[in-house]
Every structure is written in structure tokens, then in C-alpha cells.
């Protein structure tokens, strides 16, 4: 994909998962921008019907069609698609049975619900199938339409079943178009062209879910990608000060004298109150830093590439997305 030395050279489908609240959609959007930089064309796919991509980019809700939503540094384009299972089902009926008009009529009486009741998991196959089709698609000259596809996928707790459901459906339908379709999807999802990345925070529950998710993907023989550690806050104090605060060796009295000497307090009482409040903040910062260091060590056990993305003080607005995309590229993830 690129002459740059990147960790995921050759990967064309990037699947992003993560525990709720970790900023999965934001990171997926930033990764799409990073991959598109320098003149490439990337498709960002949403599969859960939340219109999260539209919210992140500050645009109207996305229809069921691919449309350009952003320009990356260097002139690349990011397209987006919010996949609708009912529309995907109609495409499936037309593709394999030539029955789109009939499919529209059947849809009025609950075609999707009927089909997914008969074949549990078919809805997910339709969603992943649409994404896989975008990965394989070529134009009339034989060139790939998209250089990469990024999927904003379901949360970590569901990701293995979501990606592996093609095997279940293929087992239910042992012959015919449904099995062929499921096999094609599996051929993309389980291939070296796919990487499943995790988004986490440096907190105990998201980190544990990430480690469990990585283990689950390995067991299912699905391709594990990297770990994006989101909303990372800098360590603001020297290690000696943090260690002293953790050991309760931090002296607020000395801090009060320093504040007074620096002219940051009007008198002894004011300096003492200021020092007590500041000491409490330092202690809290030290505790959080210790926790984050511990969670980093836990993530290191997974032996997958890790990328740290900064906490955005102004939130994930378009400027913030470009900042995250730059951080992703600087660390060799795109």
C-alpha cells in the first residue's frame, strides 16, 4: 500500500473493536484518515446503525451508499458507508437470485427477520459480506477501488462471534449461494489481508476485555492486529515526585513555602490551603499514573503492536481526528 515502513503493510481490511466508551468509532475514523493520507482512497464502514461516523465527522446521517466525507493530508479521500442489513439483503437476493423487485415485496412482510430466524447469524454475514465485497471490488481497469477498508465493528465481547459467524452459516447451508457467499466472506475475514485491532483505555476493565478478546481471536484462528491505547494523558511530574506522593513522603509544608517564595500565595494561610489542594491533586495523579503503568505492563503480555493516542482536550472534532491520524502515522500504524 505504501513505500513507508508500516506495521500493517499488505492489510486491506482493518477491523476496529473495543469496549464501549473507549472511543472505538473515533479511532476508526482517525485510522481511515491516516490510511488515506498521501492520495489513497479508503472506505470507512459502520455496521451497528448508530450513525457514529456521521457524529464524529459532524455531518448529516449517512444513507446506504458510499460517499466521500473527508479529505486526508496529501489529497487522499475517505468514503463512508453505514450498512443497512435490509438493503444488504435486497442486494443479496438480486445478486444470487435476480429477484430484487420480489425482494422489495418480501421485505415489506419481514424478509430480513424471516431469513435471520431461519439462519441465525445471516444478518452478520450480510454486513460482513458487504464489507468484504468492498475489499475485493475492482474497477473496469482491474484496479482496486479502495486501497483499504476500515470497519467500525461491534464491541469486544461480540467481535469473535461476529467475524466467525460465517462458519456457522456455511455449516447450516452446506450447498448453494448462501454457503458460497459465507465462504467468500470467510476467505477475506480470516486472510492475511485482514487485521482486527483493539481500542482500549489504560483502565482495568477495558484492558482485561482486550486481552480476553485477543485470546478469543487466536482460538478462532482470526487475524489479530494491534492495540490502540486511547485518551492517554501525559505524566506531568518527574518520577521522583510521583514516587514520593505514592509513598506519602510528599510534604505539603515544603510545597507551601515554595508557593509563597514564588509569589503564588498571598500569605501563610493562603499558601497552606493552596498546598494542601495541590498535594491532593499530585497524589491522585500519582495513583492514576501507577495504575496506567500497571495496565501497560498487562497489555505488553499480549505481544501485539501498541499505539498510544493522546487525550483530546477539545474532544474528537475534525481537527482532533487529524491530530489522532498524525499520531497513528507517526507510530507506523498506517
Automatic annotation (TrEMBL):
GO terms for molecular function: ATP binding; ATP hydrolysis activity. PANTHER family: ARSENICAL PUMP-DRIVING ATPASE ARSENITE-TRANSLOCATING ATPASE (PTHR10803), ATPASE RV3679-RELATED (PTHR10803:SF31). Pfam families: ArsA_ATPase. It comes from the Bacteria. SUPFAM superfamilies: P-loop containing nucleoside triphosphate hydrolases. InterPro entries: ArsA/GET3_ATPase-like (IPR025723), ATPase_ArsA/GET3 (IPR016300), P-loop_NTPase (IPR027417). Residues 14-170 form the ArsA/GET3 Anion-transporting ATPase-like domain. It comes from Sphaerisporangium album. This is ATPase. Residues 287-313 are annotated as: Disordered. Residues 287-298 have a biased composition (Basic and acidic residues).
